[in-house]
UniProtKB/TrEMBL annotation:
UniProt superkingdom: Bacteria
Organism of provenance: Cohnella cellulosilytica
Keywords recorded for this protein, A-Z: Membrane, Transmembrane, Transmembrane helix
Stretches that traverse the bilayer: 48-64, 71-87, 107-126
Ranges of residues in domain VanZ-like: 10-122
Keyword Transferase belongs to the record: no
Pfam families named in the record: VanZ
InterPro entries: VanZ-like
Keyword Transmembrane helix: yes
Name the record gives this protein: VanZ family protein
Length: 137
């Protein structure tokens, strides 16, 4: 993919987060037992904030390309995810039996930070190894 199309996975991830956030509390409670069959330790959907925003940050890093291997790209990625998290929490204030929660936003930011830092470290490690193996022609 080239150019702005590289952000398509991030847009799709944002749409998935928006769709999940649009579910009422009753709707979420009705599907929780299905998830608990696969993840018995899951007592609610709070851990999904880490997962969703980890995935969002990975897709944003993909769109960023080389910028994701720089500290400013890493920080920009986290800021974009947290800003989207703020809009998501605001959106939830309009959904029945849902409310904005600052702790959810913290979890969103932690998931995004973990993914952004992981990408930064892996890309730097990959680039370092690649530059050591460069022999020149």
């Amino acid at each position: 993919m080239k150019g702005k199309w590289k952000y398509l996975p991030a847009l799709l991830c944002m749409i998935a987060i928006f769709a999940a956030s649009s579910r009422s509390g009753d709707q979420l409670d009705s599907v929780l037992p299905w998830f608990q069959r696969w993840l018995p330790f899951l007592s609610d959907f709070n851990p999904m904030h880490y997962v969703a925003y980890f995935a969002l940050a990975l897709t944003i890093a993909y769109g960023m390309g080389r910028l994701a291997a720089e500290w400013r790209g890493c920080l920009l990625n986290i800021v974009v995810c947290v800003l989207y998290g703020i809009t998501d929490e605001w959106h939830q204030s309009f959904v029945p039996m849902r409310s904005p929660d600052p702790l959810d936003l913290l979890h969103d930011g932690m998931g995004a930070a973990a993914a952004s830092l992981l990408v930064l470290l892996l890309l730097r490690l990959f680039n370092r190894r690649r530059s050591r193996n460069y022999t020149g022609s």
